[in-house]
Amino acid sequence: MAGGTPFDIAGRVIWVTGSSRGVGRGVAEHLGAAGASVVVHARRQEALEQVTAALEALGAPLLAVTGDVRDEAAMAEVAAAIEARFGRLDGVIANVGGAAFGPAATLELERFRKQIDLNLTGAFATLRAAYPLLSAARGAAVLISATAASNPTPQFAAYGAAKAATEQLTGSLAAEWGPQVRVNCVSPGLIRTEGSLKSVFGGSEELVARAGRTTAVGRIGEPSDIACACQFLLSDGAAFISGAVLVVDGGPVEGPTQRILRALEQS
C-alpha cells in the first residue's frame, strides 16, 4: 500500500485524456501533486504547454501525448508510448467529452452521431487501448459521465444518451475485465471551468453564486472535486468498488414533489 494509506497514489502511472484544460487539467495537476506520474493528453501538442509546465513545477514525472481518442491507431500509439516511457500503466481516466445542445426535432443526424462518437466511442477506444497495460498492473479505469445521463435534459438529448451509455459501459467492462481491472465512473454536476464560466455564466460571479444555491452544499463544483473522486476510485481505498457510478454534484435541494409545489405556488 503506497505511502501507508489506502488513498495514496504516489508512484502510480496514470493517463488522463483531455487534460489540456478544464476538468481534465485539474485532475492531472491534482494527481501530479499527489505523487503520481501523469500522462497528459490533447489532440494537439501546443495545447499541452500549460499543463506540462504546471506538472514540471510540481516535479511530477510526466509524458505528453497527442491523438484523437476516436482513432484506434492513435490510441494504440499512445499506449505504446506510455509503455516505452514508464513500462507500466496503473490507471486511466477517460475524460474527453463535450456537449452540443439543440432541439431534438431539428438535430441533424450527423451531429447526433458525433456526440455519441466523442463521448462514448472515444471512452471505449481509450480503455481498450489501455487494457493490456492495466491488466498487467491490475490497475483501474475511471470514465467521466455527467448528471445528464440520469436527468432528462431538453436540448441535450444526444449528450445525455451518450453519457447514459457510458455509465452502462462502465458496468459491462467492470464485469468483463475483473478481477484484473476495476472500472468505475464519476458523474459530475456543474463544474466551474474556464469554459463553463464563459459559456454558462457569461463571466458573471453573481450567476455562479446563484447556481451554487441550487446544490445542497451551497456552491458549484471545482475541478478538484472531480480530481479527489478520481483519486479515490484509482486508489486501494476503492479496492472493493467496481462497476459503480459516483455522482459528484453537490446534492439536490429539492425533488420532483417540491418542483411541482413550487409551480403551483407560482400559478
Write a structural description:
By secondary structure, the chain is α/β, with parallel strands linked by helices. It has a single domain (2-192, 221-266), classed as NAD(P)-binding Rossmann-like Domain (Rossmann fold, 3-Layer(aba) Sandwich), CATH 3.40.50. Helices cover 46% and strands 13% of the residues. The chain is built from 9 helices and 7 strands; from the N terminus they run E-H-E-H-E-H-E-H-E-H-E-H-H-H-E-H. It has helices spanning 22-33, 49-58, 72-86, 109-137, 157-177, 194-199, 205-212, 223-234, 256-266, and strands at 13-16, 37-42, 62-66, 91-94, 140-144, 182-188, 245-248. Strands 3-2-1-4-5-6-7 form a 7-stranded parallel beta sheet, with helices on both faces. Helix 1 packs parallel to helix 2, helix 1 (22-33) crosses helix 8 and helix 4 (109-137) packs parallel to helix 5.
